[in-house]
Amino acid sequence: MNPYPRDSDLEKIEKWEWNDPKGLIEYIRSLWWMPYWGFKLKGKKVLLLELSTGGWSGNEDIIRALQNTGFWMLYWEQSRRGGHYRFKVRPIKKEIGERRKR
User: Which residues neighbour 47 within 8 Å (Cβ) at sequence distance 6 or greater?
Assistant: First the structure.
């Protein structure tokens, strides 16, 4: 088995529907090399996703594909030297203009 993501896998990430962040996260997990080390997901309502590439080029390809998505624009929070990325995924509002409940 070739652990590197195929071009079709990366294209699927780039074309993922912006309103299915949980599905995309699970798909990325299925492709991630060493997820037990470099893939951390916490939370229930608000998800905190931390990805570390470990310098592995396959994981870095996934990050590059992810940078071309609405997911990155909506949820990216931080990048650190050494291939570390952090995303905060809040629930998507069902209607545009819906006021945030306090």
Answer: 21, 22, 25, 41, 87, 88, 89
* Residue 66 dihedral angles phi and psi, to the nearest 5°: -65, -30
Give me the residue label for tokens 């074309």.
15
Q: Which amino acid is at 95?
A: E
pLDDT tens digits along 76-100: 999 999 999 999 999 877 655 555 5
Which pTM value belongs to this model?
0.86
Question: Is the Cβ–Cβ distance between 28 and 66 less than 8 Å?
Answer: yes
Residue of 25, 31, 35, 38 lying closest to 5 (CA atoms): 31
Q: Which residues contact 18 (CB under 8 A, 6 or more apart)?
A: 69, 70, 71, 74
Placement of tokens 């993501």 in the chain: 5
- 52 Cβ partners below 8 Å, 6+ apart? 37, 38, 39, 82, 83, 84, 85
